[in-house]
Amino acid sequence: GENVEQHPSTLSVQEGDSAVIKCTYSDSASNYFPWYKQELGKGPQLIIDIRSNVGEKKDQRIAVTLNKTAKHFSLHITETQPEDSAVYFCAASMQGNEKLTFGTGTRLTIIP
Amino acid sequence: DGGITQSPKYLFRKEGQNVTLSCEQNLNHDAMYWYRQDPGQGLRLIYYSQIVNDFQKGDIAEGYSVSREKKESFPLTVTSAQKNPTAFYLCATSRGRNQPQHFGDGTRLSIL
Predict the structure, then answer these.
(1) A-B contacts (CB, under 8 Å)
(2) In chain B, what is the greatest distance between 2 CA atoms, to the nearest angstrom?
(3) What is the pLDDT of residues A99-110, one digit of tens each?
């Protein structure tokens, strides 16, 4: 089955700097890659996703890049703000497959 | 997500007792999912359902049961056969296969 590895497990950045979180996946048939943000005591919130026919997608300060050859994808947050502090999860799934396989999460802390 | 309601927010179970977690949605989504989240780990799929009166086991279905009698509802029962039930349980919905999944705010289950 699919295996998703996520790094780093914790990340601290100065407010205003950029943060990058990386994930690798094992199954080349995976074609859908969402990113979720989870705040304390809440459910994960979908913040951006990408499909394998696209190499990059942006939404304001957030971007996701996908390298199908290397089987990795990354979340980039620019101009970080205190409200970006949370746990971020990557995930992957295959066409026609119900199952999302999640990474183990990255705790991002923005230092004011 | 305002369209997905999980209740209760906190639940306590005695040894040998079955408990049922509620998940209701008003998004008119066909698919519903149950995940378990343990500290420092990603989300793991327990059960999912694509259509009323049909559901499939996920990766960790042992000790759990579900029903899908209505499109809006997908209750999860944690049975006494689940030996380590303490966890954060998350319900999600999506329009269908390989579509974005949206999460409720979870139920935290603890053992007395």
Answers:
(1) 64
(2) 38
(3) 899 999 999 999
Distance from CA of A99 to the nearest CA of B (A): 8
Enumerate the residues of chain A whose CB falls inside 8 A of the CB of residue B46.
Answer: none
Beta strand A86-94 pairing with A30-38: antiparallel
Residue of chain A with shortest Cα separation from B104: A43
Predicted local confidence at residue A99, as pLDDT: 84
Per the model's pLDDT, the better-predicted residue between B15 and A76 turns out to be: A76
In the block, tokens 């026609």 appear at A96
Residue-wise pLDDT for A36-75, tens only, equals: 999 998 999 999 999 988 899 999 999 999 999 999 999 9
Whether the Cβ atoms of residue B78 and residue B18 lie closer than 8 Å to each other:
yes
Contact of A48 with A34, CB cutoff 8 Å: yes
Q: Which of A6, A49, A101 is facing B100, going by the closest CB pair?
A: A49
**pLDDT above 80 (res B2):** no
